[in-house]
Design goal:
Two copies of one chain form a homodimer. With about 525 residues, chain A is of the alpha+beta class. Chain A folds into five domains: about 100 residues, Uridine Diphospho-n-acetylenolpyruvylglucosamine Reductase, domain 2; about 120 residues, Uridine Diphospho-n-acetylenolpyruvylglucosamine Reductase, domain 3; about 150 residues, 3-Layer(aba) Sandwich (Vanillyl-alcohol Oxidase, Chain A, domain 3), CATH 3.40.462; about 90 residues, Vanillyl-alcohol Oxidase, Chain A, domain 3 (3-Layer(aba) Sandwich); about 35 residues, Vanillyl-alcohol Oxidase, Chain A, domain 4. Chain A is about 30% helix and about 20% strand. Chain A has 15 helices and 20 strands. In chain A, the strands form four sheets. In chain A, strands 12, 13, 14, 15, 16, 17, 18, 19 and 20 form a nine-stranded antiparallel sheet that branches. The first copy, chain A, has a five-stranded antiparallel sheet with strand order 5-6-10-8-9. The first copy, chain A, is globular.
């Protein structure tokens, strides 16, 4: 963390001379404007650091950024990188914020930014899918659907600026039906470290019209190998979409007491398992809701963790409970009404004192004008950036790490995790602010550790507690589904069954698919042989 | 196809002496009774040939069968096989019928039968899953659910005798919600060719309770690598189950005319995409329905393909249409009623002349006594063997190959495939009998080529037309999802995009994971290096 971040750096193991040759080769293949070198185009390269780290830290400073504009240019980048042994780090839109943004795991890597490959290649109304390049953001995809007057909705995450491909490849989640994005991806095109291009599933066959309609071909499906990995660079992806429903009904369940958490979860589980609720619900807290209204200091001026008084005030002012579940129903009016009645009955019985609010709107009437608040928008495929307002929480320039363990969908597991996370996070001087994302059998307790990025001590406190929580949750048997680049080795170490047999399998695959170790070394704790030895 | 099938054979490339040593090593590790050698235990080994091939053919005759009883014994088998370079061929229950049954791709392989590993290790009522070993059949699993008075239903295929694991690993399909079994598998334990054991997803972490509740861990998900592949031997699998619904409503739609096929498909597509229909529907034909009633000769005694007269008679006698769609609805009574009304309205408008039949029954009342016909049973998780009656069709000892191309879920693709398949199959003297299995965006046109296995000319005609159809459908852009062992190389060749880039990727993975090439060589057209060269 010593050198100034605008310094020219070279990739580890490379001489300045060889790196210069590699840069000239990149420029020859992609055009001068497509290659940005730290120390020369510093302001542009600066965009590729982690925006949520302390500005003075440079552990993840890239040596350069290359911006291919086509599959062929991606192939050229890979071949040049192999020739000169240049470690690459692929990023799509670069909005992997809270997990490192676009910054590479290894300082001095060359970032491969896919932003220029930004075409929506197909929208198939009949079969409800789109085909996108990595530089297509959720904003872009939704704008294209609107431009075409499409009847399809896309599942989107809370922030619309990220890449559809990048989100999916990092096991990201959105909130419509099909919101477990890795499960509703269908058909990839991938450039391998060899420079070869493969198409997965039915796409492995010339002219097969089922590439984006059927998830498997003949032989093992390899799509998931290119997610949360460093085994290839994805250049095209099919994403399944959802037909616009006759009726859209956003629902909220507000539970007044901290101790209601278990019951909220145990009440919805059967309704997720039996298909009454088909989207991806989220349980938020009063802290999260308060954070987008005004800074923390205007809510609470005392020392130490947020007290009961804060929760009471926030709940009263915002009309919320301590825990607030959001979900949505989609379908014909009579079916949505029947599902809503079941939800009401379940929560009336399951969580005494909770209250449910809902409204229904015709799917064709949903727009930015008619659906104005974030929870209603994000479950209807209307992307936004509203949650960025939470960055004001501590003042200064806000940032956060996301600590995201997974557990089976049972209230007792949520309680166990709360009991591990809250005291540690509060002891670090931060607030506990989980957004708990639900699938029918599991949940992700995504806990943003908000801080002021200009306050080095506070950023360091967040990093320190993150590392400690990786250890503590791991000891309790809970693994993280995703992680910040600084902690990927720690998280990988959680997965230690049978003397880390899975990590060793990953290494075997890595060495076979990328023998020179050029693709995103260290991602998810997977290192090439050359960086493992010694 | 020359040697008598009960001959003692040795694996290719092995001396009789070395093979004898290997067999003694297997017996030492597993016990004498767990090793069956062709030429000695011939009657027992005979069970491991393809039951649907002509009895005189011996292309797939195994040299021996080993039957491990535990994960440790599977590891021992793999290590011994590596030591002696013995090609193995893994089979679970061995009921991969129509695709080769338990028979190995390579004559002289040692079959690893997993039948002895037959425990249902867990049934989780709260999270709706079961954990099974490969020797658990659908009959076994459903019996165990019944024994526990479980409220969970398992998605099952048409025949109940097959392995839950084996079906899933071969991308098999069942007919309940979650019927795309590879998509509702969660968490594997796998013995690799190295003899090491890995657990996938959250199972890669010691004591993680989400192993069978959450489908991904940290890093790329490798589960699908062990499906339709020869990269490992699966020893445990989590299978997601479906809660017993309040109401179960099996539905049939009968369409009178051959030319209704497109409309049947195009009418249901929106109802699958919007979640009105959540199970896996199937479109059958009058031939299929007739085949389970009595032999072909009692339906039609003329020469040549089945004429219009046959279809008219079968439809009238059986109360069916030319095409017959089956599906089922699951849920609370009011919702099922609303869904049924939508189905009725859709087919009244979409397929003039079609008629819909349905009944509703409380989920808790469903049993073998109350649900007696195959379509109603198989969509409610009540396994059976009723469809085996179709083997009487040609007389003698019936068998079949299944020719199973996939296409996008649109009527025009089904028409194109019918136009390719029917004339070729009828020209071969066989009947065209597709069972078209529907997913929201694709279909499998599973076309059994029935024959009398004792009639060598007829079996050969089926094999010949199968090979020809692989070529013809491939040229038209449609790939097979699964295939008989004799045609795996032909089918793999269909997937030829970019000079067979996918096959070369499979070979790279194969060489890395199984450098000695001992695991199921040739499966899905994936050969180890030693068998590719020369």
């Amino acid at each position: 963390m010593s050198a100034p971040v605008d310094d020219a750096v070279v990739p580890p193991g490379l001489s300045a001379e060889d790196f210069g040759k590699a840069l000239r080769a990149f420029a020859a293949a992609l055009g001068e404007g497509a290659v940005l070198r730290a120390g020369e185009a510093t302001e542009q390269v600066r965009e590729f650091r982690d925006p949520y780290s302390f500005p003075g830290w440079d552990d993840h400073w890239p040596a350069a950024v290359v911006q291919p504009g086509s599959v062929e240019e991606v192939q050229a980048v890979v071949r040049i990188a192999r020739q000169y042994r240049v470690p690459l780090w692929t990023t799509s839109m670069g909005k992997n914020n809270a997990y490192g943004g676009p910054a590479p795991r290894v300082r001095g890597s060359v970032v491969v930014s896919m932003r220029r490959m930004n075409r929506v290649l197909e929208v198939n109304e009949e079969l409800a899918y789109a085909v996108v390049e990595p530089g297509v953001s959720f904003f872009d995809l939704c704008a294209e659907l609107q431009r075409r007057a499409s009847r399809l909705w896309a599942s989107i995450p809370d922030l619309g600026w990220g890449s559809v491909v990048g989100n999916t490849l990092d096991h990201g989640v959105g909130y419509l039906p099909g919101g477990n994005h890795a499960d509703t991806q269908c058909g990839l095109e991938v450039v391998l470290a060899s420079g070869e291009v493969v198409r997965t599933g039915m796409g492995a066959m010339d002219g097969n019209p089922a590439w984006h309609a059927h998830r498997r071909g003949f032989g093992p499906a390899v799509d998931s190998l290119f997610m949360q990995s460093n085994f290839g660079i994805v250049t095209k992806m099919g994403k399944w979409l959802t037909p616009r429903p006759e009726v859209y009904a956003p629902v909220e369940v507000h539970a007044p007491r901290e101790e209601d958490l278990e019951a909220i979860i145990d009440t919805i589980r059967p309704l997720l398992l039996d298909g009454t609720v088909t989207n991806v619900p989220l349980i938020g807290t009063a802290v999260g809701a308060a954070s987008v209204t005004r800074p923390r200091a205007q809510w609470y001026s005392g020392d130490g963790p947020l007290p009961a008084e804060f929760y009471a005030r926030a709940a009263a002012e915002l009309g919320l409970g301590y825990w607030n579940l959001r979900l949505a129903l989609y379908g014909p009016a009579d079916i949505v009404d029947a599902q809503l009645a079941r939800l009401r009955a379940a929560y009336a019985a399951g969580v005494p004192g909770a209250w449910l609010t809902a409204r229904t709107i015709a799917g064709e009437d949903v727009s930015e004008e008619t659906v104005t608040i974030h929870p209603e928008r994000v479950q209807a495929g209307v992307p936004g950036l509203a949650l960025l307002d939470s960055l004001q929480w501590w003042g200064g320039i806000g940032g956060h790490l996301d600590f995201s363990p997974v557990a089976p969908l049972a209230g007792r597991h949520a309680r166990t995790l709360v009991n591990i996370l809250r005291p540690e996070i509060e002891r670090a001087g931060l607030d506990f602010w989980p957004g708990t994302i639900l699938t029918p059998r599991s949940f992700y307790m995504v806990s943003p550790l908000l801080y002021d990025t200009t306050n080095e001590a506070q950023v360091k406190a967040a990093y320190d507690v993150y590392r400690r929580l990786v250890k503590l949750t791991g000891e309790a048997g809970y693994g993280l589904y995703r992680g910040h680049i600084d902690f990927m080795d720690d998280i990988a170490a959680q997965y230690g069954w049978n003397d880390h047999a899975m990590l060793r399998l990953y290494q075997t695959l890595k060495d076979a698919l990328d023998p020179d170790g050029i693709l995103s070394p260290g991602k998810q704790g997977i290192w090439p042989r050359s960086m493992r030895e010694g």
